[in-house]
Amino acid sequence: MPTRLVLLCAGATAATRAARFADPAEPLDAGGRAKVLALDLAGAAAAHCWVSPAAAARETAALIGVAAEEAPALRDIDAGAWTGRSLESLAPAAVAAWLAAPEAGAPGGESMAAVRARVGPWLDGLGEGRVLAISHAAVLRAAIAHALDVPVAATLAIDVAPLSMVVLSRHGRWRVQELRRG
Predict the structure, then answer these.
(1) What pTM was computed for the model?
(2) Which ranges of the chain would DSSP assign to H, the alpha helix?
């Protein structure tokens, strides 16, 4: 039996709307909660559900009514010293350096390669059957990079909005079945 994994990006927070670096303690905002409640997950029924330990992901799972087990591998990228900050609040030279190589990560934070290094083994360790995982844009991109065996930098060209879905399947090797913008 193959594995079918639906990766759902957590709902919106004030930080996502303001283009700030995520804070794992930040819950969904009112608009994020409303959109999660309106979400149609037809076809995403799963035998097992996983969730990032971040507040927004846990709240997304609760609002869609799934009992999900926390998976540390699904936590959002660590933004280091930039956690909770907007690009406008940072030194222009630091922002320019980050924009030139965003896969390298924020100062004191985690690189996209490090995210892929923790997400890849988690993916490969999944058993057969239908799985739902609620996480974050960086994690969805890292999962795509792992599934397709492409550089994580290539996945930065994929827009992953709140409530976007990536459907992966594995029957011998991983394949991308679907990308759906939230």
Answers:
(1) 0.94
(2) 14-17, 30-37, 55-64, 92-100, 112-124, 137-148, 152-155
